[in-house]
Design brief:
Blueprint: H1 3-20, E1 25-29, H2 34-44, E2 49-54, H3 61-77, E3 81-85, H4 89-98, H5 108-131, E4 133-135, H6 141-147, H7 168-177, H8 182-185, H9 200-204, H10 208-215, H11 226-241, H12 243-246, H13 256-259
Parallel strand pairs: 1-2, 1-4, 2-3
Helix pairs in contact: 1-7, 2-7, 10-11
Length: about 260
């Protein structure tokens, strides 16, 4: 990958899109992970206004620290970056009380995790709305088009996606080029939707390197290892299960003869 050229291309793409649509800036949710760090840095390099928002909800302390430090570093290097902390803990607790989240079933934990992502999306769009900014997505190609590892109408609810055509390994390379802090570069990727320190790999069952391999493998054969066979099975299971996220919303098309008297 021509890292510098890719960086410049994305920055120009962001700037041109905003200017064409008469938008004056961007809003990015900062998680403490590589994707949001790279995305926010690219937005900052456009010279347009950028609001970086940290939105803790019973968050792992390491995630919070990395997010805060990243925002501080951006503000030191870019005059157009504003940092904001929106503590959503009380909002989330009120939501849990209202839906009586003590009544648990097998989908309880995942549903609450997705609710966190949707509360954050609502917050991002509030600040985008009052400032005439765009909400910028932070998903990469593996998450967005491979395993569908994101929340529909949560972190999947965005206006534009500057790094969605980059594999996770390419995002890491871009992060190093952009001088993203090593604590973020070296951290295990995590969606930050749980109070513990579980990583994406813990949840998926395969690393991003393995998933990238699976995305580029058309079919299994006898030459691949048992682990590779397992990874292919994991990848295909997630890809099938989450296909509804990656395709357009189905519309019930009414036959014309039923719409006329």
């Amino acid at each position: 990958m021509k890292t510098q050229k890719v960086s410049e291309f994305i920055v120009d793409w962001l700037k041109n899109y905003a200017q064409t649509n008469k938008i004056s800036g961007f809003v990015v949710g900062i998680s403490g992970g590589i994707d949001s760090a790279v995305t926010s840095t690219l937005c900052a390099k456009t010279g347009l206004e950028v609001i970086c928002i940290e939105m803790p909800i019973k968050q792992n302390d390491e995630h919070v620290t990395r997010a805060k430090n990243h925002i501080k570093n951006l503000q030191l290097n870019y005059d157009n970056v504003t940092g904001k902390l929106v503590d959503l803990n009380a909002v989330f607790e009120a939501f849990c009380n209202e839906v009586n989240s003590s009544k648990k079933n097998s989908n309880h934990e995942l549903s609450l995790a997705n609710s966190r992502a949707r509360l954050r999306m609502t917050t991002l769009y509030y600040f985008a709305g009052i400032n005439n900014y765009l909400v910028v997505g932070t998903g990469n190609k593996v998450e967005d088009f491979g395993v569908g590892f994101y929340t529909k109408y949560g972190d999947g609810g965005v206006d534009l996606s500057p790094i969605a055509d980059l594999l996770k390994s390419q995002v890491f390379n871009l992060g190093k080029f952009l001088n993203v802090d090593n604590t973020i570069i070296n951290a295990k990727p995590s969606d930050g939707l749980y109070a513990d320190s579980r990583s994406d790999e813990d949840q998926i069952g395969a690393s991003y390197d393995e998933l990238e391999w699976a995305m580029n493998t058309t079919e299994s054969n006898s030459k691949i290892s048992d682990r590779q066979k397992e990874v292919l099975k994991i990848y295909r299971s997630f890809n099938t299960k989450n296909k509804h996220k990656m395709e357009a919303i189905p519309i019930c098309m009414i036959p014309k003869d039923l719409l006329t008297d």
